[in-house]
Amino acid sequence: MLAVWYDMQGPAEQVLRFGDLPTPEPGAGEVRVRVTRSGINPGDTKKRRGWLGSSMPFPRVIPHSDGAGVVDKVGAGVDSARIGERVWVFGAQSYRAFGTAAQFTVVPAAQAVTLPDTVGDDIGACLGIPGITAHRAVFGDGPIRCRTVLVHGVLGGVGAMATQLARWGGATVIGTVRHRADLAHAYSRGVEQVVALDGPDPAREIRDHAPGGIDRIIEVAFSDNIDLDAAVAKNHTVIAAYGTGESRPNFPFWPMLFDNITIRLLGSDDFPAEAKQQAATDLTAAAADGALSIAIDEPVPLDQATRAHDLVDRGTRTRTRTLLAIPD
User: Fold this and answer.
1) What are phi and psi of 217, to 5 degrees?
2) What's the N-to-C CA distance of the chain in angstroms?
3) Are the C-beta atoms of 148 and 204 separated by less than 8 Å?
4) Is the overall model pTM greater than 0.85, yes or no?
5) Which of 84, 146, 262, 288 suits 218 as a labelling partner, its CA being 20 to 30 A distant?
């Protein structure tokens, strides 16, 4: 099969390789997916770079955990009726060596989720890491119907998904962007209440939208925003954080203690299996309902994976997702 891989960590142009590798075979309880789209997330490029001192988990890695395609072979114990089924894939390179940047990938059967006919492969390839992280952030502490949810970074991959899932779940959503120049962009994405963090008094603006305080806070920059979060929280607020600027953040302990605030830290590779499965079920349902709109760039050909990784590493002003198009 054609694939992209690396045998050592480093800059994309130095370590990514493109060529032929043996086609994998599914083991017991696994399915093989003929990949059409491979989703690239910042976590994938961080693994390639050796972020935070991480080392190579396997001698060779085919990157990317997310993707979409068609089941073409099943292992022992898996219903053969799944062959030919359109699916979206998550966790392909989570504690596994070979992800979705290839014509074929093998995953446990539960990690290849039926993709409804009304949902395209591009959307399917974007659901995994950002969708499951967003789902856990939004729903990890119970239902949110009639609650108020503050989502920081609504133009980011997780933030955009969290905003849409929270609305789908019946919550009132307030979003934030870092700069006032991004407000129009956020409104164009359908976020109805948006606050710019570089405004004169973002806490007051948030309180104007939610006088009684915020029930759930979805946090992309814990160390940067924690004083603001404490100012707009109320008793029993949950702050679900999946990112931070400073690796050892400070926070106002006593005010947060008196509000009985819960801090939930989210590492997507190690969510409980049942939480991932519930997320997969809900993400598929939300996508089928038309509740998820994802801004996606024109897919990059597989043999140009270096360019795609560089796009993700640099980020884009338009906050669009980057995919690889896998050839037949």
Assistant:
1) -120, 125
2) 10
3) no
4) yes
5) 288
Q: Which two tokens stand for residue 129?
A: 């890491």
Quick: pLDDT tens for 180-235. 999 999 998 889 999 999 999 999 999 999 999 999 999 999 999 999 999 999 99
Residue 241 CA to residue 287 CA, distance in Å, equals 24
The amino acid at residue 21 is L
**Integer Cα distance of 53 and 45 in angstroms:** 13
Pairing of β 104-108 and β 30-40: antiparallel
Question: In terms of Cα–Cα distance, which of 87, 79, 132 is closest to 105?
Answer: 87
Torsion 101-164-240-278 (CA) sign: negative
- pLDDT-derived band at 174 (thresholds 50, 70, 90) equals very high
3-class SS letters over the chain: CEEEEECCCCCHHHHCEEEECCCCCCCCCEEEEEEEEEEECHHHHHHHHCHHHCCCCCCCEECCCEEEEEEEEECCCCCHHHCCCEEEECCCCCCCCECCCECEEEEEHHHEEECCCCCCHHHHCCCHHHHHHHHHHHHCCCCCCCCEEEEECCCCHHHHHHHHHHHHCCCEEEEEECCHHHHHHHHHCCCCCEEECCCCCHHHHHHHHCCCCEEEEEECCHHHHHHHHHHHEEEEEEEEECCCCCCCCCCCHHHHHHCCCEEEECCHHHCCHHHHHHHHHHHHHHHHCCCCCCCECCCEEHHHHHHHHHHHHHCCCCCCEEEEECCC
Q: Which one-letter amino acid corresponds to residue 224?
A: D
Amino acid type, 66: D
